Amino acid sequence: xxxxxxxxxxxxxxxxxxxxxxxxxxxxxxxxxxxxxxxxxxxxxxxxxxxxxxxxxxxxxxxxxxxxxxxxxxxxxxxxxxxxxxxxxxxxxxxxxxxxxxxxxxxxxxxxxxxxxxxxxxxxxxxxxxxxxxxxxxxxxxxxxxxxxxxxxxxxxxxxxxxxxxxxxxxxxxxxxxxxxxxxxxxxxxxxxxxxxxxxxxxxxxxxxxxxxxxxxxxxxxxxxxxxxxxxxxxxxxxxxxxxxxxxxxxxxxxxxxxxxxxxxxxxxxxxxxxxxxxxxxxxxxxxxxxxxxxxxxxxxxxxxxxxxxxxxxxxxxxxxxxxxxxxxxxxxxxxxxxxxxxxxxxxxxxxxxxxxxxxxxxxxxxxxxxxxxxxxxxxxxxxxxxxxxxxxxxxxxxxxxxxxxxxxxxxxxxxxxxxxxxxxxxxxxxxxxxxxxxxxxxxxxxxxxxxxxxxxxxxxxxxxxxxxxxxxxxxxxxxxxxxxxxxxxxxxxxxxxxxxxxxxxxxxxxxxxxxxxxxxxxxxxxxxxxxxxxxxxxxxxxxxxxxxxxxxxxxxxxxxxxxxxxxxxxxxxxxxxxxxxxxxxxxxxxxxxxxxxxxxxxxxxxxxxxxxxxxxxxxxxxxxxxxxxxxxxxxxxxxxxxxxxxxxxxxxxxxxxxxxxxxxxx
Length: 667
Ligand code: MG
What we know:
single chain; alpha+beta; Glycosyltransferase; Beta-galactosidase, Chain A, domain 5; 2 domains; five-stranded antiparallel sheet; 22 strands; 37% helix; elongated; binds magnesium ion
């Protein structure tokens, strides 16, 4: 027998009993409820007699038998728990809490839970503790096993959290201070526990937890009053403390829709719901460009925004208020899905631009399945949802989202396709990285130039140093001056021609004081890419053209400004750069982050040319993907126009001696 575990188990049981005693009947809850609602007659009459105990018993009875309110994210008749969720639930019994994938194994928060424990000074670790990600798994474990230990422990932790995380005034600035790596002593805990995003997370998840646990004997009438008072405080808090903008505001609004729809018994419920709906209707117009791109220019947050809008829509459908979300709202969601389909690769992963995560095929296919339920007549959503078994893909291949600045060159939707996604848009919001001009290139099953990713978000100096390495411009497939990060990120599309044998993009970014960067991309015969980079202006220094390869064997031939990959399988690439002036090819520190706090080393190179005066620095790079490394071609390239020309560029490229003239004409 594991004595240690048994003792720990007994301790938990003891603590849970003490906690249950600590619950009080919070009679103020009855003032918060509209007791005139059908079904609450007995509660109302007990309240009139000031029999608060009976009122609480009647209220619990009402909630245990309530019908007519639907939580569409959970089906109590078909509950499933994954191995991972079961572990989170079991670990939580011993106060080992799953907080973040980046910090595994999970930390133990002590027998007497220390909600302020912060073993690594990464803000996400401290913020996300207050999302209680293990609560819903505990609820599922409870329902599936019938074991009361989960319910008792959940009640205990719920009450313990209330007791130790009082809501004290925190300013908006203080909630986000960690982003600058600062920590303030005053209200330090509240600024984590009560950051609006975390509060809204609890508002949403507690609707599920309520359904899972309400049947338990541990869910006493007294606890119900504690729960409702706490929940009401959460929604009232959000109503007055919405984030100013961005995905946080969207999350908070959607979750207020949940609060209002799930607990219509609160007098304030209508206000909460209307507030959430109003914000979503307003922000979908503000945060989504006409081409369907969300303005943070981050594929992952774009996806999150789609799902936020969809969740509100599903809640509205399930509870009969779809009419509050106009047709235009629904059409914008569809446009956002189309935008997303366009920037994704055939294996359903998205480029890791900005703070994006790679995504995972099953989860992404499930997204399409959920979207198909909202758009059952859409043949292309059906195609992605069924992995090509039904429906038909989008009727075009290459696609430009000109307002958002995402451009895809594509030869098909199958795994063998050749797909380049270029990011060159306007100034993005917080999650956007200064990476204008960068790209990812997928060929025949492999991402040959994956983005460096984001690695971590925000925290103390050490964490910010890591974040900034991945965030900086030089860690992208684009041009820098002296390795510095772009001062201005505001790309202008000069030409987008997505059809024919030679497809062309010309995009220009102001980049630095005294140096603009024009990048011309030619996609030739659906086979290879010719990238022309021109650095123009008065500025002097070293111009660097940076490229970052997929991890694995890369053979660098600095003498010929060339490299070839020797990856396993049928997806390799030759890259050769032809700088107009003599320069050097250097190998640079290279990393790719595949998930939060996970990174792998990879080959990165820079082509460096001294810019001594106002003369432009120009490069031609040929990127030639091949299935068979024996097929690497001989490459040559040169400029045909003598110097930078605002009207465009002409280059001559030779592949195995066969010459090709490529011309970009800007009108
Ligand atoms: Mg990046």
